[in-house]
Amino acid sequence: MGGWGSGRSSGSKDTTSDYRRLDVRQWQRGGYLAPGRVVTWQWTRNGEKVGEIGVRAESDRVILSYRHCSMGSKNWERLEYPVAIDWTPCHYGGRRAWFRCPGQGCGRRVAILYIGKYALCRHCRQLAYECQREPPHYRALNRAQAIRMKLGGSGSMVDPYPWKPKGMHWRTYHRYKRKSAAIEGRLWALEAAMLHLDLG
Q1: How many domains does the chain have?
Q2: How far apart are CA 61 and CA 100, in angstroms?
Q3: Are residues 111 and 173 part of one domain?
Q4: What DSSP element (H or E) covers 81?
Q5: Distance between CA 179 and CA 77 in Å, rounded?
Q6: Residues 86 and 178 in one domain
Q7: What number of other Cβ atoms are within 10 A of residue 110's Cβ?
Q8: Which member of 18, 65, 92, 124 lies 3.0 to 4.6 Å from 80 by CB, making a disulfide possible if both were Cys?
Q9: Do 151 and 53 share a domain, yes or no?
Q10: Contacts 24+ apart (CB under 8 A), 29-33
Q11: In this structure, are 31 and 100 located in the same domain?
């Protein structure tokens, strides 16, 4: 795969959307973290494969393997290295997987790693979130979905609001619910304003 995470020209701040990502939540849902599992993770654009990475799961870590070619170079380099996996209990039962960033001196527990020459966290790559460029209604939607998913919901705005997760204090749950109500109220107001503008 050529130029993974090569970013943009100097003077322009890279964002998380400028890099291909590895999301441990997707891998956990897909069962890719089970020891002994070997998969090839692919990225596609318009139905065509634009990159792939080999993943081999072991006990509490995954082994990543792929080829890297820096921008402006024709030389491909084969890389293979481990990334540790941490597990934490969920309030609503089960457990959640996290990557441990393999960056030198880092080791942060993160859900997403960004692929350049190596898979590193947002902090090591000094990336801004793409949401800083998003329209307000997208930011509101993302925040509302994040709270619903934190409570064990699907994140869909048409589903009923999630019930209190087992083990969560009612005070905490009501705080999330009040925050959700404020964000979702703003979201629907923004959507209504957009609809009014679209209809003229």
Answers
A1: 2
A2: 9
A3: no
A4: strand 77-89
A5: 48
A6: no
A7: 20
A8: 65
A9: no
A10: 32/57, 32/62, 33/57, 33/62, 33/85, 33/97
A11: yes
Q: Would you state the pLDDT for residue 65? A: 95
Cβ-count burial 16-38 (b if 16+ within 10 Å, e if not): bebbbbbebeebbeeebbeeeee
The single residue listed with the structure tokens 């509490």 is 60
State whether 117 and 164 are in the same domain.
no
Answer yes or no: are the C-beta atoms of 87 and 99 closer than 8 Å.
no
29 and 101 inside one domain: yes
Handedness of CA 46, 48, 54, 56 (dihedral sign): positive
Q: Is the domain of 121 the same as that of 23?
A: yes
pTM over 0.90: no
The alpha carbon torsion through 119, 121, 23, 97 (nearest 10 deg) reads 110
